[in-house]
């Protein structure tokens, strides 16, 4: 028989460790991202508690610096990035009419390296101190001389490993979107979320290598005694700033573009109208991504780059306002003339618009170098980027999670609680961050662990802290909502919002393992809506019913990531003096690193030597299920 | 900046107004059925909201570029400028006046209305030199990338200065004061700074002070350059930049502040480089004596 059913079916934990199904990996990303988001949130609350009054001594100055560093790093790399990947995994293959991503094995590898990198970074709390040089980790503060614990090593190596996962994920989605679109889905018929995921993946491909190089250099400086950033030996600290921000600024757009995508899906659905100005949206997205690589030095206006650089980077930064403005007006005019429903998902999406515009206008103000000399490194900047990342991205993620939850889990989140989440989170958000604009203008610099009284900071800081706790309650309500929903029986309709426009709403919620029994034929933009308007209940299939080729589950990605994790730990402590001679022996002679790398490369070898042809779901099975349904 | 803020407020108002209108006018009403018209886009509108922002950007860009270049001008060698070389340390500020041959710390004394031209550098990690009410900030980089900029104070008074770049645990406490005084006072201050050092009257105490303190600190023409210059510390605005002295809101007597500091420097400013005087073997009595001496070490200007 041509199609062997030799696949091992795992159950329970093993199923999750070995899965290569994009829907399950999406859920794993969501769980891990949620966990780290929670940790980052607790760190945020501790920061706000410390700043609740002047000269507070809740945490020490050193602990405070560790908290701000880990809050920023965790939220950006381990909190919101994986939730973005969760949505991309859960939705992109469905939206383009594919059965999985292009490289299911890599998809799993990407998740596990991200997770182990994140775990490594967070282990620093219990293994001698967290990184303390800020999420930007500017040298020389982050060099051995001034940061003497292993904190920054956890930062460089943890992020290196986690970044590997992100890079792998980005490449995978690029390949998926380029090669696996259903027949008829030309690029200009792709849903907006797919477009933004595509552009974001392209940005990851170009931006992450920069941070990879930067982290390698810093690791070499710290662990192997190199001199890339040591002034005394001819290194340059300003070089780190360039490398970091050549990655760091595109990273902001890597984060926000998927949120733009989510908003562009949610708003049309709940306005029952197609997205206004689709082509200009696509164009604006590409333009933002392109300009995003041209503006990094606006983080460095006060570094002393000289007037020519400052002027050029000011103008290129201001230019980003143009494509962003196009998007804002397109969303508003999508709703114009529509029938807007205020579901929880749509509340977050609509709430996104004014909030993000506020982050945008402060961005343009910061773009002007002379003004930035005042604003830079103050709470004005803190307010600005939280308006963009929380008011923009996190609102977008909540909108997306409420919107696609039924597709991911087969259950609709409770709408009443969802609306409470929105109002608590939104009001808390503005209380927390709106006042911070004024704190910055009054002269409160960022990253200070406390402040002297009589500067007019006291009341505003108190307000900000109260707001932060309201946001916390909003997030807890969301958590409660998901748990409450999980206790309800499954079984929502394919198209629970009734106005779904794209392919993911044509199949079951949650979809079968193979997503589409027959790959659909796409006849225009908003493929499902087009069929609905033509009076069809289902998509027209583009292929006859046939056996479906599936990838086999495998534990190798997990094992490979464990190997890298071990090698990372070994690298970090290679120069450590242990009191235990055995520990010294295995660490100081690089034995731990070698073991870790052997595990990883050994797994790669296994993967290369033993061909895995996957397995097939036969037509009879498909039909059986059809009968059941 | 005012132009930028007003443009931005207008933009915000327009977007908020359209949002509010859309949300009120186009909410789905009970019993509403039928599908709204599926509008693809509107070429004219899209051009409008591309071109108008572009024009706004140009309106903002022109003054921005002008100001960037004005700010970038090097005034360090202007004839009438007062040169100040700033060196930042974890967690204090050193001010050198090369034209006058004077070095001080923490309190930057400047003549009112005169252009003060700075050359900035750091002795350790990156810091950023910032006097919010007088000017924007500028980073202090290690050798090789020295920054220059200038400002002037329009009126006499004391202005708060801060470090604006994360530099370690006591980053938030790395403040300094800018004291703008009349030109005559400034000249008097320079003369007083250049006068020979005044040491404690008690010879034994003077010996301890010389041996234990002047190995790093300096007073007048004596002592070392590693730690803040203490000449005339009794007439400064603060001790260790955050223990504010009398005369400022919430300030305390100088001597009390000096004693708090000398008693346990780490408790005041975590991570600073000063060894605890007690660890150096100073008795409470000696600490009290030195605090008393320093508190009364005032400059007349």
From TrEMBL, chain B:
Cofactors, names only: Cu cation
Protein's membrane topology: Multi-pass membrane protein
Keyword Membrane present in the record's keywords: the answer is yes
One short Pfam name that applies is COX2
List the GO biological process terms. ATP synthesis coupled electron transport
Q: Where in the cell is it found?
A: Cell membrane; Membrane
Gene Ontology cellular-component terms listed: plasma membrane
Q: Does the keyword Membrane apply?
A: yes
**Cofactor binding remark:** Binds a copper A center.
- Domain Cytochrome oxidase subunit II transmembrane region profile, by residue range, is 1-75
The protein's enzyme class: translocase
User: According to the lineage, what is the superkingdom?
Assistant: Bacteria
Query: Boundaries of each Cytochrome oxidase subunit II copper A binding domain copy?
Result: 79-192
Q: Which UniProt keywords apply?
A: Copper, Electron transport, Heme, Iron, Membrane, Metal-binding, Respiratory chain, Translocase, Transmembrane, Transmembrane helix, Transport
The family classification in the record reads: Belongs to the cytochrome c oxidase subunit 2 family.
This chain belongs to which protein, by name?
Answer: Cytochrome c oxidase subunit 2
Record organism? Paenibacillus pini JCM 16418
